[in-house]
């Protein structure tokens, strides 16, 4: 195996390279879904325009598949636009709301983003452990990432404590 400078090698993109990580990670906002949603709708309009303009000409290149593609792309684009919620609650604020909801002093906690429902509403799933060593209680809290509403809160004794 040679290590010549002209050799092509696989490498991670800079934003995925953990060794170059500096500072806290900023979770991307769901509102970015609007970009592909608009792209799908623009492509759907182009497909529909081609189909409509060639409908009478019976073109060999433009068939009824263009109409089917336009309908499918419109449906996917509208869904993408309707699921592009703008998050107002980040993981740190979700941890604060979860700590208030469980009713005990929190030691270790972690937050994970999940999506609920047909329109994929973003929600933070926060797992909390009490501050004792070992923890005596644990809680699972679902915090809505749009309006900080507590969707669900489950607290129980820690069976491992």
- The quaternary state of the protein chains shown equals single chain
Largest sheet: 4 strands, antiparallel
Indicate the CATH architecture of the largest domain. Answer: Roll
Provide the residue-averaged pLDDT. Answer: 85
By CATH, the topology of the largest domain is Nuclear Transport Factor 2, Chain: A
Shape: elongated
End-to-end gap? 52 Å
Name the helicity range. Answer: 25-40%
List low-pLDDT spans: none
Number of domains: 2
- The total strand number stands at 4
Structure explained in plain terms:
This protein has 161 residues and is α+β, with helices and mostly antiparallel strands. It folds into two domains: 30-82, no CATH class; 91-157, Nuclear Transport Factor 2, Chain: A, CATH 3.10.450. The protein contains three helices and four strands, in the order αααββββ.
SSE layout and pairing:
Elements: H1 34-53, H2 65-82, H3 91-102, E1 106-116, E2 121-130, E3 137-144, E4 150-157
Antiparallel strand pairs: 1-2, 2-3, 3-4
Features:
elongated, single chain, Nuclear Transport Factor 2, Chain: A, 4 strands, four-stranded antiparallel beta sheet, 161 residues
In short:
This protein is an alpha+beta fold and 161 residues long. The chain contains three helices and four strands, in the order H-H-H-E-E-E-E. 16% of the residues are buried.
């Amino acid at each position: 195996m040679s290590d010549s400078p002209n050799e092509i090698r696989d490498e991670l993109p800079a934003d995925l390279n953990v060794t170059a990580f500096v500072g806290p990670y900023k979770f991307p906002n769901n509102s970015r879904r609007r970009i592909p949603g608009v792209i799908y709708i623009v492509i759907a309009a182009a497909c529909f325009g081609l189909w409509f303009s060639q409908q009478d000409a019976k073109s060999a290149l433009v068939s009824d598949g263009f109409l089917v593609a336009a309908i499918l792309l419109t449906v996917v684009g509208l869904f993408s636009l309707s699921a592009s919620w703008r998050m107002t609650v980040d993981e740190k604020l979700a941890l604060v709301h979860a700590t208030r909801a469980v009713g005990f002093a929190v030691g270790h906690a972690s937050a994970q983003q999940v999506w609920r429902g047909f329109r994929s509403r973003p929600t933070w799933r926060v797992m909390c452990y009490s501050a004792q060593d070992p923890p005596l209680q644990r809680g699972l809290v679902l915090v809505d990432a749009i309006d900080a509403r507590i969707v669900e809160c489950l607290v129980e004794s820690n069976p491992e404590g």
